[in-house]
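Forgive a beginner's question, but would it be possible to get any protein sequence you like and the tokens describing how it folds?
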Amino acid sequence: MSTPLTSARPRRRAIASCLVLIALGVAACSTAEPGPATPTPRSTLLGSAAPATASPSSAPSVTPQPTPRFTNQPDPALEALIPATIAGAKVQKPTPNEYGITPGDFGLSFGDLGLRFESLVIAFIERPRLSLFAARVSGEPTDTASLRPYLAAAGEYVGISGLHPEAWRSVVIGGKLAWKRGDDPATLQGTTLYCWSSGQYVFLLTGSSDAANMAMVKALPGQPAPTPTPRATPTPRSSTGTSGAGNPSSPASPSPSSS
């Protein structure tokens, strides 16, 4: 007895349904996202890593520049260098709290050198009139020749009208080098000024008696004047020579005027 056709149709539908499911499964496998990539070996990662950035080199140290001092500090050692009397007159030495001038104020007339003024001592004589400014200098010693660029401003500081550097001349007082000014149109008649250094100190002096001024310069420390080079002795004419006498050497350069 044959199987009815109606019983065979459901089976075909079931097979078709299975094919659809299989097809969908294959399509799903073919379009599925790939799995995670194989991890890169550690050595490869280390080799491909960017080199570490070198730390910046430290900046070179900068030496701080000196700054002016606008405070008055006692300096007993410097004050002790100033004599008690000059030419029979008493030298007055006020304490720092008795005057309002500071090393920084005085140093303004001495440019970069004035930045190194550590302390300031002032002394004066009433008659004959004399005023002395003495400053201690820090750092490298200062010679008298290096004061040349500041002389005009130093003169103006003590009342000279106008800047006249040409009025100063180099002199030797008591074996010490100094700069002197006087007898010029801008300086009060009878007044002389002296400015000099001992290496550690800078002095500025003005007064109405040049004798008293020179006595003060001699009493204070200073830079020794160089020993003048003696003139070469001319070679005497030889009695047996066939030609004239030898030429004498050129005379040495003139030294500063001395007192």
About this structure: DSSP finds seven helices and nine strands in the chain. The two ends are 163 Å apart (CA to CA). The CA atoms of residues 106 and 159 lie 13 Å apart.
